[in-house]
Amino acid sequence: xxxxxxKETHRAVNPGDVISEEPETVEEKTQQLAVDSPDITGExxxxxxxxxVKEPDGEEKALHHVRDAEEISDVIRQARVDEEGNRIW
Length: 89
What we know:
This protein is α+β, with helices and mostly antiparallel strands.
């Protein structure tokens, strides 16, 4: 029996769906990928595990693509585009 045995998760879980229990910075979280593989056409698809958002008070936080999906949707609904096509949050 190994002493450094990793936590076992269900085999159907994508590695990017597992939320680390170790503290990480917002920047470290937003660099993680949930999916990094080719699709049926062979095009490489990358899906971030966390989405970085800035709160109205200026605080930055990372929202997990599964756990925080509803909050991510709320943030996207709040986005606006100006006359030049620039996104305003």
